[in-house]
Design brief:
By secondary structure, this protein is mainly α. It has helices at about 1-10, 40-60, 80-95. It has 3 helices and no strands. About 10% of the residues are buried.
Length: about 100
């Protein structure tokens, strides 16, 4: 009887290691959720700094620069403020699209 018990027993199989979990599928990148190109951030900050520099230069030079009384043929006077704020607003507008 002991012989039959020994013949019927099989050695235990080693359990298989667990399969690693599959990574979650990456979201499909459409036009709206693409990352910004490399040039976006420097251009954005460049517009902001250029607008600030334009306004500061206009005030410090006593309305002579950048396009003031020093060049009478292109004197735009206080419109230099509008140009400076326009450049700043382009930079801030780009900041709303920064990801």
């Amino acid at each position: 009887m002991s012989e039959s018990v020994e013949k019927n027993t099989k050695p235990a199989k080693a359990s298989k290691p667990a399969k690693p979990a599959k990574p979650a599928k990456a979201a499909k990148l459409s036009g709206d959720n693409l990352p910004n190109p490399v040039w976006f951030k420097p251009v954005m900050f460049g517009f902001m700094l250029l607008g600030l520099a334009w306004i500061v230069t206009f005030y410090i030079s006593g309305a002579q620069l950048p396009l003031g009384g020093m060049f009478p043929e292109i004197n735009i006077g206080s419109w230099n403020i509008a140009i400076g704020f326009g450049l700043l607003m382009v930079g801030f507008g780009m900041a709303t699209r920064w990801k």
